[in-house]
Amino acid sequence: MNLDKISKNDATRIYTVFNTNLQAYAFRDISKSPIQPSDNSMYFESYDMDTDMTALGEWISQQTTTQIPLYPFFIKMNQIIGGSRDLHLSLSFAKNPKNYHTAEMYTINPTSFYFKDKKIFLNIPSSIASKTPSTFFGTTLMNSLTAKINTEVTQINGVSAIQFITTFAKKYYRLKNENGAVTYFKKAFVLSLYQYVPFEQSDLSFVLTFSDGETISFESKLFDAGQVASNLKGDVADFESVRSALEDVRKRKLDHKNRITNSTKVPHFSPLDIITNEDFKNLNRKTGNLYDYSLSDIISCGKRTIDGSNVNLLVVKSFSPDKINDFLTVTNQCAQLFDTNKDPIVIVLPLNGGGYLICEEILMKTLSPYSQYNRRYIARISESSENVMRNGYAQSLIDPKTGKTRTPISDYVYTEKSMGSWYDEPITDLYGSVEFTHTQDSYMETENAQYQMKNVRSPNEIIVFTDHFCFSACSLFAKHFQEKKAAILATYSGLPQSTYRDVGESPTAVIEDVYINNGNDVTLSSYGLEMGISFLPSLPVDTTSEVPNEYKVHHPDNYVEIESFDETESSITAFLKKGLEIYNLYKTNCKNGTYKLDSKCANTDTEVLGYICNNGVYGNSCEVVGCVDRYVMDKDGKCVLDTTVIENGALRITIIVALALLVFV
Length: 665
Known about the structure:
Pdz3 Domain; alpha+beta; single chain; 31 strands
């Protein structure tokens, strides 16, 4: 790893651009002193990015040679990236012009882990990058591990297995909630591109202790796709096969990213994601007759009869399709399928890393048309943020008072001296003694649902399952349901014994660093690097709160002990059974704040009426529960015309994308 060198002058230039880019980071201030949830005063970890940036600058200046090792420099930058536990904030090699080994390295482990009855067991893959695990680790180790597949793992590296996995996952998989980090760890531990999960070398050795007292040791394999066949236990043909498989997946993901990048001219951030071993399983996977309608690995739906009860199924694995219209087509097909009956809808969001805001919004408007509201967004005030706004981002933001875009629609950089009062007269909030200065609230452009459901479900008829990982646009989707009490939310996976759960994380719009510079500046891309930056935080439904949703916890209503979702009939059946159990639970003992639609409550031209649940019982008088299509509820509870909707499909697409666990681009 230390073979890679970089000049001290280049390191200094990279540091300067890196620090400039991070001025646009939305939570650079808030992370120093985050407001804690009322029920957990130590939940959000504080992190001072400024202190670590100063320390990095001093480390560079202290180097006594003209060439310094790239590895420790890259690790130190990634520690800064990871300090605020925000996966949107990323640093990676977009290209590898200098043939750095660090950019070509993969971390491979012979096993992952799974939970059963609050105990931990080995989860040995049948293949790794399309080869048997023994190709990388030899038959002796793999035979020893296989012999222990049904024996509980009690300790890892001398500490309890549960504690080790929790600590390790939080350190490297960088989500604020430990359950999301553990879900991510379980899927990504076997194989990942090193630059996205840059493990410290001291954390690459493992000693497993089993309940029978026996131990097995192994070390992570660092596979250098740019090196020779000495990477493997096998021969050159094995090496070339693995390298070819890795490159095929990498190219497939890169093509996906490029299609997204070329589909819109406004600021966007294509998924910059991690290859995992699951990608190789997905290459030839067929879903057969599991669904009535499906866009593979994105969105699928169907109907089932489970134990005599009819139920609808919707599986959304990503909001980031190659073509947005394909997503919208399947959304409409699923809505029409659900309109053929009045049975409950079970929604599963497995390892969903987010995607386009338009896909999330239209799916939400289709399934829950009466719970809509104008989402508010803000941005940190800085020179870098202003550059982003001037380079086109502000054209997608709406003035809540006038319904007009913050800057005129144009293909050119906005050069007027004043950005307008929304930016030039910012708001400063205090987080402890830390000041956070940000723009005034803005809305984003939206579109209406293309298909209006006739059999709109009441909240207790929609059951949403998330695995805690549910990220970015996915978390917007889940948190919208929870904030508006428009569904019953349940989580699965994570840590079975955990008592503090969140339905999703990081409902924040992101940008690529290229939108900060104006074309003439030195950029990280000059060195083959690129960044993703959390830029535009979403705000709560409660308009009196300016605390971003990034620092809000939305607890689920239920937790079910299901380890993971797989596209098999048995896995689908398990989720639908649990969904029906939850549906029956809330049939009579309703969730406070939810509502029940009833034909006895006649809607007005703008308002939807129903019975609201209080103290576990639905009321008997009709009350306003939402607004009809094209209307949203304002802060006074009145239904007003939605001024953010762009008619006739003319939306200039703004997207929220995430680090999807199963994608690398």
